[in-house]
Amino acid sequence: MEKIREKCGVFGIYGHSSDAAEKIVCGLTALQHRGQESAGIAVCETSGAKGNITFHKGMGLVNEVFKDDSLKTLEGNIGVGHVRYSTTGASNIANAQPVVFNYLKGTLATVHNGNLINTEELRSELFSDGAVFRSDTDTEVLATLIAKERAKCASIEEAVRLAAARIRGSYAIIVMSPRKLVAMRDPAGLKPLCIGKCEDSWVIASEDCALKAVGAEFVRDVVPGEILTFSEEGMRSDTSLCTGNHAHCIFEYIYFARLDSKIDNVDVYSARFKVGQALAGAYPVQADIVTGVPDSGLAAALGYSEQSGIPFKLAFHKNSYLGRTFIKPTGSERKHAVELKLNVIESVVRGKRIVLIDDSIVRGTTIANLISHLKNAGALEVHVRISSPPFLYPCFYGTDVPDNSELIAKKLDTTEIRKRIGADSLFYARLEDIERSVGNLPVCKACFDGHYPV
After folding, report:
1. Pairing, β 248-249 against β 443-444
2. How many whole angstroms separate alpha carbon 240 and alpha carbon 228?
3. Which residues are known catalytic residues?
4. What's this model's pTM, rounded to 2 decimal places?
5. 135-141 mean pLDDT
6. 210: left (phi over 0), alpha (psi -120 to 50) or beta
7. Which of 111, 339, 340, 375 is the most buried (most CB within 10 A)?
Protein backbone atom coordinates (compact mmCIF):
# COMPACT_ATOMS: atom_id res chain seq x y z
CA MET A 1 0.00 0.00 0.00
CA GLU A 2 0.99 3.64 -0.04
CA LYS A 3 3.47 3.17 2.76
CA ILE A 4 6.97 4.13 3.64
CA ARG A 5 9.51 1.63 2.40
CA GLU A 6 12.44 -0.12 4.01
CA LYS A 7 15.56 -1.01 2.15
CA CYS A 8 16.19 -4.74 2.62
CA GLY A 9 17.06 -7.74 4.72
CA VAL A 10 20.40 -9.49 5.18
CA PHE A 11 21.33 -13.03 6.18
CA GLY A 12 24.63 -14.83 6.70
CA ILE A 13 25.79 -18.25 7.82
CA TYR A 14 29.10 -19.84 8.78
CA GLY A 15 28.98 -23.60 9.25
CA HIS A 16 30.69 -26.89 8.52
CA SER A 17 28.23 -28.47 6.09
CA SER A 18 27.93 -27.52 2.42
CA ASP A 19 24.22 -26.64 2.42
CA ALA A 20 24.67 -22.95 3.26
CA ALA A 21 22.67 -21.83 0.20
CA GLU A 22 19.63 -23.89 1.16
CA LYS A 23 19.59 -22.40 4.65
CA ILE A 24 20.04 -18.90 3.23
CA VAL A 25 17.00 -19.41 0.98
CA CYS A 26 14.96 -20.30 4.07
CA GLY A 27 16.29 -17.27 5.93
CA LEU A 28 15.62 -14.89 3.06
CA THR A 29 12.10 -16.22 2.64
CA ALA A 30 11.46 -15.31 6.28
CA LEU A 31 12.83 -11.83 5.54
CA GLN A 32 10.85 -11.40 2.30
CA HIS A 33 8.69 -8.69 3.92
CA ARG A 34 11.74 -6.41 3.99
CA GLY A 35 12.23 -6.37 0.21
CA GLN A 36 10.61 -7.90 -2.84
CA GLU A 37 12.40 -6.43 -5.84
CA SER A 38 15.46 -8.69 -5.96
CA ALA A 39 17.20 -11.48 -4.09
CA GLY A 40 20.73 -12.85 -4.12
CA ILE A 41 23.07 -15.36 -2.50
CA ALA A 42 26.86 -15.78 -2.51
CA VAL A 43 28.60 -18.83 -1.00
CA CYS A 44 32.05 -20.27 -0.57
CA GLU A 45 33.61 -23.54 0.56
CA THR A 46 36.28 -22.66 3.13
CA SER A 47 38.20 -25.85 2.37
CA GLY A 48 38.23 -25.12 -1.37
CA ALA A 49 40.43 -22.99 -3.60
CA LYS A 50 41.05 -19.49 -2.30
CA GLY A 51 38.66 -16.96 -3.74
CA ASN A 52 36.16 -19.50 -5.06
CA ILE A 53 33.02 -17.45 -4.28
CA THR A 54 29.98 -18.37 -6.37
CA PHE A 55 26.80 -16.36 -6.47
CA HIS A 56 23.38 -16.02 -8.05
CA LYS A 57 20.94 -13.11 -7.93
CA GLY A 58 17.90 -11.97 -9.84
CA MET A 59 14.82 -9.77 -9.89
CA GLY A 60 11.74 -10.95 -8.02
CA LEU A 61 10.84 -12.91 -4.92
CA VAL A 62 13.15 -15.45 -3.30
CA ASN A 63 11.18 -18.43 -4.62
CA GLU A 64 11.26 -16.93 -8.11
CA VAL A 65 15.00 -16.26 -8.14
CA PHE A 66 16.13 -19.53 -6.56
CA LYS A 67 14.98 -22.69 -8.29
CA ASP A 68 16.49 -26.13 -7.80
CA ASP A 69 18.86 -25.67 -10.72
CA SER A 70 20.28 -22.40 -9.43
CA LEU A 71 20.91 -23.86 -5.98
CA LYS A 72 22.92 -26.75 -7.44
CA THR A 73 25.65 -24.31 -8.45
CA LEU A 74 25.83 -22.76 -4.97
CA GLU A 75 27.88 -25.16 -2.91
CA GLY A 76 29.65 -23.93 0.20
CA ASN A 77 29.62 -23.89 3.98
CA ILE A 78 29.58 -20.10 4.39
CA GLY A 79 27.43 -17.57 2.61
CA VAL A 80 25.47 -14.32 2.58
CA GLY A 81 22.04 -13.47 1.24
CA HIS A 82 19.96 -10.39 0.55
CA VAL A 83 16.44 -9.24 -0.30
CA ARG A 84 16.11 -5.72 -1.63
CA TYR A 85 13.83 -2.77 -1.98
CA SER A 86 15.48 0.15 -3.76
CA THR A 87 15.70 3.33 -1.72
CA THR A 88 19.13 4.10 -3.19
CA GLY A 89 19.69 3.17 -6.81
CA ALA A 90 17.34 1.97 -9.50
CA SER A 91 15.40 -1.29 -9.40
CA ASN A 92 17.46 -3.44 -11.76
CA ILE A 93 19.74 -6.45 -11.70
CA ALA A 94 22.90 -4.31 -11.63
CA ASN A 95 21.87 -3.04 -8.20
CA ALA A 96 20.85 -6.42 -6.78
CA GLN A 97 23.01 -7.78 -3.97
CA PRO A 98 25.32 -9.38 -2.89
CA VAL A 99 28.03 -7.18 -4.38
CA VAL A 100 30.82 -9.60 -5.30
CA PHE A 101 34.11 -7.78 -5.60
CA ASN A 102 37.43 -9.04 -6.99
CA TYR A 103 40.44 -7.15 -5.71
CA LEU A 104 44.21 -7.54 -5.33
CA LYS A 105 44.11 -10.10 -2.49
CA GLY A 106 41.04 -12.09 -3.51
CA THR A 107 37.24 -11.86 -3.61
CA LEU A 108 34.65 -10.45 -1.22
CA ALA A 109 30.84 -10.61 -1.16
CA THR A 110 28.92 -7.85 0.66
CA VAL A 111 25.27 -7.40 1.64
CA HIS A 112 23.94 -4.24 3.25
CA ASN A 113 20.76 -2.90 4.82
CA GLY A 114 20.63 0.82 5.46
CA ASN A 115 21.81 4.04 3.90
CA LEU A 116 25.16 5.83 4.01
CA ILE A 117 24.76 9.58 4.21
CA ASN A 118 28.33 10.30 3.07
CA THR A 119 28.11 8.15 -0.07
CA GLU A 120 28.89 10.90 -2.56
CA GLU A 121 31.95 12.03 -0.63
CA LEU A 122 33.29 8.49 -0.59
CA ARG A 123 32.34 7.89 -4.21
CA SER A 124 34.33 10.91 -5.36
CA GLU A 125 37.36 9.75 -3.42
CA LEU A 126 37.24 6.06 -4.32
CA PHE A 127 36.58 6.61 -8.01
CA SER A 128 38.75 9.67 -8.58
CA ASP A 129 40.83 7.62 -11.03
CA GLY A 130 37.94 7.51 -13.49
CA ALA A 131 36.82 3.97 -12.70
CA VAL A 132 33.21 3.22 -13.60
CA PHE A 133 30.62 2.02 -11.13
CA ARG A 134 28.80 -1.18 -11.97
CA SER A 135 25.81 0.05 -9.97
CA ASP A 136 24.53 3.30 -8.45
CA THR A 137 24.12 2.04 -4.88
CA ASP A 138 25.89 2.95 -1.68
CA THR A 139 26.59 -0.77 -1.21
CA GLU A 140 29.08 -0.77 -4.07
CA VAL A 141 30.76 2.27 -2.52
CA LEU A 142 30.96 0.38 0.77
CA ALA A 143 32.28 -2.80 -0.89
CA THR A 144 34.90 -0.80 -2.77
CA LEU A 145 36.02 0.92 0.42
CA ILE A 146 36.36 -2.41 2.26
CA ALA A 147 38.29 -3.96 -0.63
CA LYS A 148 40.72 -1.03 -0.79
CA GLU A 149 41.27 -1.16 2.95
CA ARG A 150 41.78 -4.93 2.73
CA ALA A 151 44.58 -4.42 0.21
CA LYS A 152 46.48 -2.44 2.86
CA CYS A 153 45.91 -4.50 6.02
CA ALA A 154 46.35 -8.01 7.36
CA SER A 155 42.77 -9.27 7.70
CA ILE A 156 39.23 -8.78 6.44
CA GLU A 157 37.98 -7.87 9.91
CA GLU A 158 40.57 -5.11 10.16
CA ALA A 159 39.51 -3.83 6.73
CA VAL A 160 35.89 -3.76 7.85
CA ARG A 161 36.83 -1.87 11.02
CA LEU A 162 38.80 0.72 9.04
CA ALA A 163 35.92 1.14 6.59
CA ALA A 164 33.35 1.40 9.40
CA ALA A 165 35.33 4.23 10.96
CA ARG A 166 34.85 6.23 7.76
CA ILE A 167 31.20 5.65 6.89
CA ARG A 168 28.24 7.56 8.33
CA GLY A 169 24.58 6.61 8.39
CA SER A 170 22.66 3.44 9.08
CA TYR A 171 23.89 -0.03 8.27
CA ALA A 172 23.69 -3.71 9.01
CA ILE A 173 26.41 -5.26 6.89
CA ILE A 174 27.71 -8.78 6.34
CA VAL A 175 30.95 -9.35 4.42
CA MET A 176 32.14 -12.77 3.28
CA SER A 177 35.71 -13.60 2.39
CA PRO A 178 36.72 -17.11 1.31
CA ARG A 179 37.56 -17.98 4.91
CA LYS A 180 35.52 -15.71 7.18
CA LEU A 181 32.21 -13.97 7.71
CA VAL A 182 32.28 -10.46 9.19
CA ALA A 183 29.19 -8.55 10.33
CA MET A 184 28.78 -5.05 11.69
CA ARG A 185 25.99 -2.80 12.89
CA ASP A 186 26.01 0.99 12.89
CA PRO A 187 26.92 2.60 16.23
CA ALA A 188 23.43 4.05 16.71
CA GLY A 189 21.77 0.69 16.12
CA LEU A 190 19.43 2.17 13.54
CA LYS A 191 19.24 -1.10 11.61
CA PRO A 192 18.59 -4.42 13.36
CA LEU A 193 20.95 -7.39 13.33
CA CYS A 194 20.97 -10.50 15.50
CA ILE A 195 23.02 -13.68 16.07
CA GLY A 196 21.85 -17.28 16.17
CA LYS A 197 23.40 -20.72 16.64
CA CYS A 198 22.28 -23.83 14.78
CA GLU A 199 24.14 -27.07 15.57
CA ASP A 200 27.60 -26.41 14.08
CA SER A 201 26.66 -23.13 12.37
CA TRP A 202 26.61 -19.46 13.30
CA VAL A 203 23.77 -17.46 11.75
CA ILE A 204 23.28 -13.72 11.49
CA ALA A 205 20.15 -11.97 10.23
CA SER A 206 18.14 -8.76 10.19
CA GLU A 207 15.41 -10.33 12.35
CA ASP A 208 15.20 -13.35 14.62
CA CYS A 209 12.25 -14.71 12.61
CA ALA A 210 14.89 -15.69 10.02
CA LEU A 211 16.85 -17.57 12.69
CA LYS A 212 13.75 -19.58 13.54
CA ALA A 213 13.26 -20.38 9.85
CA VAL A 214 16.55 -22.31 9.76
CA GLY A 215 16.17 -23.90 13.20
CA ALA A 216 18.71 -21.60 14.84
CA GLU A 217 18.54 -20.60 18.49
CA PHE A 218 18.65 -16.88 19.18
CA VAL A 219 21.89 -15.90 20.93
CA ARG A 220 21.65 -12.11 21.15
CA ASP A 221 21.30 -8.89 19.18
CA VAL A 222 24.47 -7.41 17.73
CA VAL A 223 25.53 -4.50 19.91
CA PRO A 224 25.35 -1.19 17.99
CA GLY A 225 28.84 -0.47 16.67
CA GLU A 226 30.01 -4.06 17.20
CA ILE A 227 32.01 -5.97 14.57
CA LEU A 228 31.74 -9.76 14.65
CA THR A 229 34.08 -12.21 12.93
CA PHE A 230 33.05 -15.83 12.32
CA SER A 231 35.77 -18.31 11.42
CA GLU A 232 37.07 -21.77 12.28
CA GLU A 233 37.95 -20.33 15.68
CA GLY A 234 34.30 -19.46 16.38
CA MET A 235 32.85 -15.99 16.95
CA ARG A 236 35.01 -13.03 17.90
CA SER A 237 33.71 -9.59 18.93
CA ASP A 238 35.27 -6.15 18.43
CA THR A 239 33.51 -3.33 20.32
CA SER A 240 36.10 -0.62 19.69
CA LEU A 241 33.64 1.45 17.63
CA CYS A 242 30.74 1.18 20.10
CA THR A 243 29.67 4.53 21.49
CA GLY A 244 26.68 3.74 23.67
CA ASN A 245 24.66 6.46 21.93
CA HIS A 246 21.80 4.39 20.54
CA ALA A 247 18.86 5.42 18.36
CA HIS A 248 17.00 2.35 17.10
CA CYS A 249 14.60 2.93 14.20
CA ILE A 250 11.12 3.29 15.71
CA PHE A 251 9.44 2.09 12.53
CA GLU A 252 10.82 -1.40 12.95
CA TYR A 253 8.30 -1.72 15.76
CA ILE A 254 5.48 0.22 14.11
CA TYR A 255 5.65 -1.43 10.72
CA PHE A 256 8.77 -3.04 9.21
CA ALA A 257 9.48 -6.06 11.36
CA ARG A 258 7.48 -9.27 11.34
CA LEU A 259 5.00 -9.70 14.18
CA ASP A 260 6.86 -12.72 15.54
CA SER A 261 10.20 -10.91 15.71
CA LYS A 262 11.90 -9.53 18.79
CA ILE A 263 14.38 -6.71 18.20
CA ASP A 264 16.72 -5.34 20.86
CA ASN A 265 14.72 -7.18 23.52
CA VAL A 266 11.41 -5.60 22.44
CA ASP A 267 8.61 -7.89 21.25
CA VAL A 268 7.16 -6.43 18.04
CA TYR A 269 3.64 -7.79 18.57
CA SER A 270 3.47 -6.45 22.12
CA ALA A 271 4.71 -3.02 21.05
CA ARG A 272 1.99 -2.69 18.40
CA PHE A 273 -0.68 -4.05 20.75
CA LYS A 274 0.27 -1.47 23.41
CA VAL A 275 0.01 1.39 20.92
CA GLY A 276 -3.50 0.24 20.06
CA GLN A 277 -4.41 0.22 23.74
CA ALA A 278 -3.02 3.74 24.12
CA LEU A 279 -5.04 4.95 21.10
CA ALA A 280 -8.23 3.61 22.65
CA GLY A 281 -7.51 5.30 25.95
CA ALA A 282 -6.61 8.63 24.39
CA TYR A 283 -9.16 8.75 21.56
CA PRO A 284 -12.33 6.76 22.37
CA VAL A 285 -15.33 6.69 20.04
CA GLN A 286 -18.77 5.10 19.88
CA ALA A 287 -18.51 2.30 17.32
CA ASP A 288 -19.68 -1.23 16.56
CA ILE A 289 -16.46 -2.91 15.42
CA VAL A 290 -12.71 -2.37 15.36
CA THR A 291 -10.70 -3.55 12.36
CA GLY A 292 -7.14 -3.20 11.16
CA VAL A 293 -5.51 -2.80 7.78
CA PRO A 294 -3.66 -6.08 7.13
CA ASP A 295 -1.11 -6.88 8.26
CA SER A 296 0.64 -4.21 10.29
CA GLY A 297 -2.57 -2.62 11.59
CA LEU A 298 -3.99 -5.81 13.07
CA ALA A 299 -2.05 -6.02 16.34
CA ALA A 300 -2.82 -2.38 17.16
CA ALA A 301 -6.46 -3.00 16.28
CA LEU A 302 -6.57 -5.92 18.72
CA GLY A 303 -5.10 -3.66 21.39
CA TYR A 304 -7.69 -0.98 20.67
CA SER A 305 -10.47 -3.57 20.83
CA GLU A 306 -9.33 -5.00 24.16
CA GLN A 307 -8.94 -1.59 25.76
CA SER A 308 -12.22 -0.15 24.41
CA GLY A 309 -14.39 -3.25 24.67
CA ILE A 310 -15.49 -2.82 21.03
CA PRO A 311 -15.41 -6.18 19.19
CA PHE A 312 -12.58 -6.83 16.77
CA LYS A 313 -13.58 -8.05 13.30
CA LEU A 314 -11.68 -8.78 10.11
CA ALA A 315 -13.13 -6.38 7.54
CA PHE A 316 -10.72 -7.06 4.69
CA HIS A 317 -9.79 -10.15 2.76
CA LYS A 318 -6.12 -10.04 1.88
CA ASN A 319 -4.74 -11.72 -1.23
CA SER A 320 -1.53 -13.05 0.29
CA TYR A 321 0.02 -13.93 -3.07
CA LEU A 322 0.70 -10.34 -4.11
CA GLY A 323 3.26 -9.43 -1.44
CA ARG A 324 3.49 -6.16 0.44
CA THR A 325 2.29 -3.48 -1.93
CA PHE A 326 4.17 -0.64 -0.26
CA ILE A 327 7.32 -2.12 -1.76
CA LYS A 328 6.09 -1.63 -5.32
CA PRO A 329 8.46 0.96 -6.78
CA THR A 330 6.00 3.30 -8.53
CA GLY A 331 2.78 4.99 -7.50
CA SER A 332 0.70 3.43 -10.26
CA GLU A 333 2.00 -0.06 -9.40
CA ARG A 334 1.19 0.46 -5.72
CA LYS A 335 -2.35 1.69 -6.46
CA HIS A 336 -3.11 -1.27 -8.74
CA ALA A 337 -1.64 -3.69 -6.20
CA VAL A 338 -3.83 -2.25 -3.42
CA GLU A 339 -6.95 -2.81 -5.51
CA LEU A 340 -5.95 -6.42 -6.10
CA LYS A 341 -4.73 -7.06 -2.59
CA LEU A 342 -7.52 -5.94 -0.23
CA ASN A 343 -11.23 -6.52 -0.62
CA VAL A 344 -13.89 -5.46 1.87
CA ILE A 345 -15.98 -8.20 3.52
CA GLU A 346 -19.38 -6.56 3.06
CA SER A 347 -21.27 -8.74 5.57
CA VAL A 348 -18.92 -7.55 8.32
CA VAL A 349 -19.12 -3.79 7.67
CA ARG A 350 -22.65 -3.23 6.35
CA GLY A 351 -24.61 -1.00 8.73
CA LYS A 352 -21.69 -0.70 11.15
CA ARG A 353 -19.76 2.17 12.71
CA ILE A 354 -16.11 1.20 12.24
CA VAL A 355 -12.84 2.05 13.94
CA LEU A 356 -10.16 1.55 11.28
CA ILE A 357 -6.58 1.16 12.52
CA ASP A 358 -3.59 1.65 10.22
CA ASP A 359 0.08 2.16 10.96
CA SER A 360 0.68 5.41 9.05
CA ILE A 361 -0.56 8.00 6.60
CA VAL A 362 2.02 9.18 4.09
CA ARG A 363 0.29 10.81 1.11
CA GLY A 364 -3.26 9.92 2.16
CA THR A 365 -4.41 8.29 -1.07
CA THR A 366 -4.48 4.69 0.15
CA ILE A 367 -6.40 5.31 3.36
CA ALA A 368 -8.87 7.44 1.39
CA ASN A 369 -9.47 4.54 -1.01
CA LEU A 370 -10.01 2.10 1.86
CA ILE A 371 -12.49 4.41 3.57
CA SER A 372 -14.34 4.84 0.28
CA HIS A 373 -14.51 1.06 -0.21
CA LEU A 374 -15.81 0.56 3.36
CA LYS A 375 -18.56 3.14 2.91
CA ASN A 376 -19.48 1.78 -0.51
CA ALA A 377 -19.87 -1.60 1.20
CA GLY A 378 -22.39 -0.10 3.64
CA ALA A 379 -20.31 1.17 6.57
CA LEU A 380 -22.17 3.98 8.34
CA GLU A 381 -19.09 5.68 9.82
CA VAL A 382 -15.32 5.16 9.57
CA HIS A 383 -13.22 6.49 12.45
CA VAL A 384 -9.49 6.31 11.69
CA ARG A 385 -6.82 5.77 14.32
CA ILE A 386 -3.15 5.75 13.23
CA SER A 387 -0.57 3.84 15.29
CA SER A 388 2.18 6.38 14.59
CA PRO A 389 2.46 10.15 14.87
CA PRO A 390 2.20 12.26 11.68
CA PHE A 391 5.14 12.09 9.29
CA LEU A 392 6.65 15.56 9.15
CA TYR A 393 10.27 15.02 8.06
CA PRO A 394 12.14 12.84 5.54
CA CYS A 395 14.39 9.97 6.62
CA PHE A 396 18.04 9.73 5.55
CA TYR A 397 18.77 6.32 7.02
CA GLY A 398 17.34 3.91 4.47
CA THR A 399 13.63 4.30 5.16
CA ASP A 400 12.05 5.79 2.07
CA VAL A 401 9.95 8.52 3.70
CA PRO A 402 9.23 10.99 0.87
CA ASP A 403 10.41 14.57 0.95
CA ASN A 404 8.22 17.21 2.56
CA SER A 405 6.35 18.00 -0.65
CA GLU A 406 4.73 14.54 -0.57
CA LEU A 407 3.97 14.28 3.15
CA ILE A 408 0.31 15.13 3.64
CA ALA A 409 0.80 15.99 7.33
CA LYS A 410 3.36 18.62 6.36
CA LYS A 411 0.81 20.43 4.22
CA LEU A 412 -2.48 19.88 6.06
CA ASP A 413 -3.55 19.79 9.70
CA THR A 414 -5.42 16.80 11.13
CA THR A 415 -8.87 18.28 10.46
CA GLU A 416 -7.97 18.97 6.83
CA ILE A 417 -6.53 15.47 6.42
CA ARG A 418 -9.69 13.95 7.91
CA LYS A 419 -11.81 15.79 5.35
CA ARG A 420 -9.43 14.90 2.52
CA ILE A 421 -9.54 11.15 3.25
CA GLY A 422 -13.27 11.05 4.05
CA ALA A 423 -12.99 9.84 7.65
CA ASP A 424 -15.58 10.66 10.30
CA SER A 425 -12.79 11.21 12.82
CA LEU A 426 -8.98 10.96 12.73
CA PHE A 427 -6.38 10.73 15.48
CA TYR A 428 -2.70 9.77 15.51
CA ALA A 429 -0.75 7.98 18.22
CA ARG A 430 1.07 10.26 20.62
CA LEU A 431 4.86 10.11 20.49
CA GLU A 432 5.10 9.44 24.22
CA ASP A 433 2.84 6.40 23.82
CA ILE A 434 5.03 5.09 21.00
CA GLU A 435 8.11 5.43 23.21
CA ARG A 436 6.38 3.67 26.11
CA SER A 437 5.35 0.81 23.82
CA VAL A 438 9.02 -0.11 23.31
CA GLY A 439 9.90 0.18 26.99
CA ASN A 440 11.64 3.53 26.56
CA LEU A 441 14.29 1.95 24.31
CA PRO A 442 16.35 4.82 22.83
CA VAL A 443 14.84 5.29 19.37
CA CYS A 444 15.27 7.39 16.26
CA LYS A 445 12.06 9.33 15.68
CA ALA A 446 13.44 11.91 13.26
CA CYS A 447 10.59 11.37 10.78
CA PHE A 448 8.25 12.65 13.51
CA ASP A 449 10.28 15.32 15.32
CA GLY A 450 13.13 16.26 12.95
CA HIS A 451 15.91 15.35 15.41
CA TYR A 452 18.46 13.30 13.44
CA PRO A 453 20.84 11.16 15.53
CA VAL A 454 23.59 10.85 12.89
Report:
1. parallel
2. 11
3. 8
4. 0.91
5. 82
6. alpha
7. 111
